[in-house]
Design brief:
By secondary structure, the chain is of the alpha/beta class. The protein has 3 domains: 129 residues, Alpha-helical ferredoxin (Fumarate Reductase Iron-sulfur Protein, Chain B, domain 2, Orthogonal Bundle), CATH 1.10.1060.10; 162 residues, FAD/NAD(P)-binding domain; 146 residues, FAD/NAD(P)-binding domain, CATH 3.50.50. 32% of the residues lie in helices and 17% in strands. The strands form 4 sheets. The chain has a 5-stranded parallel sheet with strand order 3-2-1-4-15, sandwiched between helices. A 5-stranded parallel sheet has the order 6-13-7-8-9. It is globular, with a radius of gyration of 23 Å.
């Protein structure tokens, strides 16, 4: 056997590299735009094992470094290849509390798969699809085991926000024996997983099972509670008996365009549009009491992941949908997979188009969108080409406009507690090694300290913060 032969199956690295990439099966576009069913249907066991064989088990696996929570990727892939699916899921859960969600929504193409050695010559190993497979196997076969919770430490931690960062921090603190209470402003937990990611990407039952898992291990949730308004941080620390607070309030303040007509009826932020539908079920009005006006021609401004979610949602609600983006297709920041799925779903595209006005009718409802055609400059020092105006304009019909331009940090807590320092963009400043804020006993993570970012990055920060909080409440740190 040669030195490059992998002893697991007798396959050499060359033979592994020759195995074809396993494409994720998808529901056909003409069918999926009629409903909100999940689009990728998942690997079969045969596909999962075959894709796992493509991993060459690098001696220095950069994929682990590329994962914000440090999953031992080669180890779980090896287990899948060997048919040990439950063990693969267990290996993932050593580092990742939300594997089924992350396998679906993480930007693997920009993180772990971006540095996959196989990807230098072939398609990178489908790490995200394999993570999803292991997590789904665990759910389908009931192999998930609850962690053993150590004896109570007597310490209480308040977590503000029940999104990915808040849920992860709650889990990490609970398995260390602390009492954890999660305060959520909305009427259910999940954060962006619920209100910002469509069901055709992340089914609700997955989120519900993760919340139930936390409840089973003793995490308590308090809903309809706005920290910074109903209760302050000082209330939590001084009156409610908490030893520390973790802020995971996210980035829910939408960015808007400063153009005429932006305040017209029929103009939404992506945040409002998606929240009304996926959290408040506005698409089912009048069965649910949150109406949503959507016309027949929807214009979506932006080309990030959230824009793709809006485009595809509007299409499923029966509209003709057009995406307007001031840069070109190559500069679109959306995940490769999400952009491809949107392109498959009969959506129109206006690249190099910058909205300058939303034209309204006599009742102040938007009826048209006016754009200036753009061209790209040469690449600047950052390597990015800037959009430049051409002076040429065009007008198209649109009776609904959704702005997907990103979000700023939720300002509620910093605005009401001067002890929490922020930078000029309103982002909470923290110690990078501990995620501790400028206020004693208060830590923060997720979009609150980065601005809008990814689920997995938020989770990585939450794990860092949980370790620091554990040391803080047990008196093992100086501050």
């Amino acid at each position: 056997m040669s030195q490059n032969t992998n002893k697991r199956t007798g396959l050499s690295n060359k033979e592994r590299m020759a195995i074809p990439f396993q494409e994720m099966p998808l529901i056909a576009p003409e069918e999926r735009i009629k409903n909100f069913e999940e689009v990728p249907v998942g690997y079969s066991i045969e596909q999962a094992i075959e894709e796992a064989k493509r991993c060459i088990q690098c001696k220095k696996p950069d994929c682990i470094i590329g994962c914000p929570v440090g999953i031992d990727i080669p180890a779980f892939i090896k287990l899948i290849e060997e048919g040990q699916m439950a063990e693969a899921a267990k290996k993932i859960r050593e580092k990742n509390f939300l594997p089924a969600a992350c396998g679906r929504v993480c930007p693997q193409d920009k993180q772990c798969q971006a540095v996959c050695v196989v990807g230098k010559k072939k398609e990178p190993v489908g790490i995200g699809s394999l993570e999803r497979y292991a997590a789904d196997y665990e759910r389908a076969h009931g192999t998930l085991e609850l962690p053993k919770i150590p004896p109570a430490t007597g310490k209480r931690i308040a977590v503000v926000g029940a999104g990915p960062a808040g849920l992860t921090c709650a889990y990490e603190l609970r398995i260390r024996g602390h009492e954890v209470v999660v305060f959520e402003a909305f009427h259910r937990a999940g954060g962006v997983l619920v209100y910002g990611i469509p069901r055709f990407r992340l089914p609700m039952e997955i989120i519900d099972e993760d919340i139930e898992y936390l409840e089973k291990i003793g995490v308590r949730f308090v809903y309809n509670m706005i920290i910074g308004k109903i209760l302050s941080l000082d209330d939590l620390l001084e009156n409610e008996g908490f030893n520390a607070v973790f802020i995971a309030s996210g980035a829910g303040l939408p960015k808007m365009l400063n153009v005429p007509g932006v305040n017209a009826n029929g103009v939404y932020s992506a945040n409002e549009y998606l929240t009304r539908i996926y959290l408040m079920e506005a698409d089912k009005f009048p069965d649910f009491a949150t109406p949503l006006y959507q016309g027949k021609k929807v214009a979506v401004i932006g080309a990030g992941n959230t824009a793709m979610d809006v485009l595809r949602t509007a299409k499923r609600l029966g509209a003709d949908v057009t995406c307007y983006y001031r840069r070109s297709h190559e500069e679109a920041p959306a995940r490769t997979e999400e952009l491809e799925h949107a392109e498959q779903e009969f959506i129109d595209w206006r690249w190099l188009s910058n909205p300058v006005e939303f034209i309204v009718d006599e009742d102040n409802f938007v009826k048209q969108i006016k754009c200036e055609k753009m061209e790209l400059s040469e690449a600047d020092e950052s390597g990015r080409r800037r959009p430049m105006p051409t002076g040429e304009f065009f007008i198209e019909d649109a009776d609904t406009v959704v702005l997907s331009l990103g979000c700023d940090v939720n300002p509620m807590i910093p605005a009401n507690d001067k002890g929490i320092k922020t930078n000029k963009w309103g982002i909470i400043t923290v110690d990078e090694e501990t995620c501790q804020t400028s206020k004693r006993g208060v830590f923060a993570g997720g979009d609150a300290i980065t601005g809008g970012a990814t689920v997995i990055l938020a989770m990585g920060q939450a794990k860092t913060a949980a370790e620091a909080i554990d040391k803080y409440v047990n008196g093992r740190c100086k501050n």
